[in-house]
Design a protein that fits this description.
alpha/beta; nine-stranded mixed beta sheet; four-stranded antiparallel beta sheet; globular; binds thiamine diphosphate; binds iron/sulfur cluster; binds magnesium ion; 2-oxoglutarate ferredoxin oxidoreductase subunit beta; EC 1.2.7.3; THDP-binding
Amino acid sequence: MPGLAPGIHDFLSPGQDVDGRDKPGHDVVGIAGAVMTYIAKPKFHHPGLKKNELGYTHRDYEGKISTLCAGCGHDSITASIIEACYELSIEPHRVAKISGIGCSSKTPDYFLGNSHGFNSVHGRMPSVLTGANLANRDLIYLGVSGDGDSASIGFGQFAHSIRRAVNMTYIVENNGVYGLTKGQFSATADRGSKSKKGVTNTDNAIDLVAIALQLGATFVARSFSGDKTQLVPLIAAAIRHKGASFIDVISPCIAFNNHAGSTKSFDYVREHNDAVNRLDVLVGRDPISVDYAPGSVQVVEQHDGSRLALRKLDADYDPHDRLGAMTFLQKHAAKGQIVTGLLYVDPEAEDLHTHLDTVETPLNTLDEQALCPGSAVLDKINASLR
Ligand SMILES: Cc1ncc(C[n+]2csc(CCOP(=O)(O)OP(=O)(O)O)c2C)c(N)n1
Ligand code: SF4
Ligand SMILES: [Mg+2]
């Protein structure tokens, strides 16, 4: 779109197409002037589709048709996000989806087509999200990123948004490579893992879950793109959590990281996955999922009144123990096991707005009188600081 500043064309208003048009197969110009293709979905759907409390069907939570490689793990994560938002009966216009750059960061275009969206700059999703959240605390913030986006160029941004307790659901679609730029190792690639070309990674890996725990995230989970039963309730619970929620989702890149020697491939993760718990989210008294399995259930009440029902597989796993979660993670990593499930939650969590003591009214709705109350008020503030 000639004439627009870089990035501006990527700001989507609710219900609006990326370039204001709505026909399948059209092209728009991307940040670097490259042509990006978007395929709109047909609007008709079966009249008998199941509806949620708001009367919306799944289709109302979908976006455009994905242009990712067929079989990409990221598309499965998209499906889980759609399912979680449908189940929670979220009003799409109350969601802001913010991403960086990468195949993973393209995915917000494929879900919640009627939500706010901003496809920002590589590694800068967290600061854009933090700014938006400070300006309007009333929206639900979904940060979608990749391992390159968050563990390489955006590592500092990731760290600061977590330690500041921004109220968000931060999802990393982790394939261990820079998928979009053809498969270079990212900082989450395990030492000793092999690239498609047979090169062995000699660098140590960053475990974003371990770092999120250390930085004080109040909801920390790991899952696998191919495990919808585990992932959907985790996303739903993270959205309901008030504070910094972080979910690392192992998401095999079928083009560059799904071969023997990769530790992010479908086969490797299936063989090394160790789930610590199974989770259902109960909103009020209505169970969203009633797929109860044998074993003990622990109900955790969150700040907003929603409850997490943890179906414990490991009898002694306690998701309220941050130090225990860190040790558990390291112990299993040493054995080559990928721990999935809800590793840590603080039901009493606070967020950045609580820490800054901001007013309940979203700042973007304050009028001029509230923002510029006059020199007498300023004099009073200055006097209080002397
Ligand atoms: C400032 C900047 N540096 C480098 C790039 C090139 N680049 C685009 S996407 C990408 C890596 C994406 O990897 P990841 O976040 O893991 O996403 P994936 O494609 O694997 O889902 C890189 C290095 C860029 N777009 N901008
Ligand atoms: S290159 Fe990899 S990450 Fe990108 S769309 Fe294809 S499979 Fe997915
Ligand atoms: Mg990646």
